[in-house]
Amino acid sequence: MLEIKCPYCGKRSQNEFSYGGDATVKRPTLGEEISTEDWDNFVYFRDNPRGKHTELWHHVSGCRQWFKASRDTATHEIFDTCKMNEAFNE
Amino acid sequence: MARELDLNMPVIENISPLHFDHKLGFYGDYENKDDILKLTEVKELSIFQIAKFKKSSVDINQIIFNNLKLPTKSLTVTSDNIARILWLGPDTWLIVSRDKKLIEDIHNIFNENDFAVTDISQSRAVIEISGSKSKDVLKKGSPLNFNNDMFKPNNCANTTYNGINIIIDFISEKPDCFNLFALRSFGGSFYHSITDSCLEYGYEAI
After folding, report:
1. Which residue is closest to B75 within chain A, CA to CA?
2. CA–CA min distance B167, chain A (Å)
3. Cβ atoms of A52 and A45 closer than 8 Å
4. What radius of gyration do chain A's Cα atoms show?
5. Hey, what CATH class is A3-24+41-83 in?
6. CA end-to-end span of chain A, whole Å?
7. Is B74 within 8 Å of chain A by CB?
8. Mean pLDDT, range B190-197, rounded to an integer
9. How many CB atoms lie within 10 A of CB B139?
10. Which residues of A touch B74 (CB under 8 A)?
11. Residue B92: its chain A contacts at CB < 8 A?
């Protein structure tokens, strides 16, 4: 079981958290002309990297806050976590 | 044809969330033991969830509720004999009290432009567990770290117990005493989960 450091609550067990996907995906800007392909890319298509990955996690059974985590998808090592409006220390 | 409303019908009595589950008595391996667990349902609490709006510019440190400050440090509780204020998350708190008169104070202090105030008194089942083995009971179902004095009196945490979302409020120690809050609809399941874990130590339902 993973131990994940919530930026608000500290180290907690993985089963208090929910995975929220790639944290680097940007929503197309509202009010601009957006092609169907751009919407497809935003809604459906994700990279599937092996190695370091910046992702969103939700402390759903804790403080209910979203935060960012830098994790190795191969080893599951978590390098750092931070609040949504902050940057990683690494 | 629609039936007319009978205004003389009897008022339905308030039934506590664990009314059908919490039966008084001694259970489990309690014989020849001095120090068994004590379990009780905490009824008639006033429970209010307070959430500060993101747009609000109120300084939380300036707010005093019933002589208590709102805790700003994670996992902490401020308390006195009347109320306990639990930190639930950033800008989110739970006020728990037996004093029904606090409602007016809450609405006076937490104005509707800055705070969302929700009365959840009827939507939580609350169990108080006390005894020297109560931490061991909680360890059986919760992933929270209770070792090395990481979780002390006047700490609280949102966590899970056998998959049920709960709030643990550490009231006091020697003997350890906790208040456990679960959603009312999960109350029965949570109660049986806790009592199953208590059996090997023996417990008295009071």
Report:
1. A9
2. 9
3. no
4. 15
5. alpha beta
6. 24
7. yes
8. 97
9. 15
10. 8-10, 63
11. 63-64
Q: Which of B87, B121, B155 is the last residue of a domain?
A: B121
Give the count of Cβ contacts less than 8 A between chain A and B: 39
Q: Of B74, B75, B165, which has the smallest distance from its Cβ to A61's Cβ?
A: B165
Write the pLDDT tens digit of every residue in A51-77.
999 999 999 999 999 999 999 999 999
Q: Do you find a cis peptide bond into B153, omega within 30 degrees of 0?
A: no
Per the structure, the complete domain to which residue B137 belongs is given by: 25-43+123-205
Task: Please tell me the distance from the alpha carbon of residue A18 to that of residue A60, in angstroms, as a whole number.
Answer: 6
Confidence of residue B159 (pLDDT cuts 50, 70, 90): very high
Q: Which of B120, B98, B118 is nearest to B43 (CA)?
A: B98
Q: Are A16 and B144 in contact (CB under 8 A)?
A: no
Q: A11 to chain B: which residues are within 8 Å by CB?
A: 145
> Pick from B154, B206, B202, B148: which is nearest to B176 by CA?
B154
Within a domain: B56? yes
Domain-located, residue B173: yes
CA distance B97 to B119: 12
ipTM of the complex: 0.85
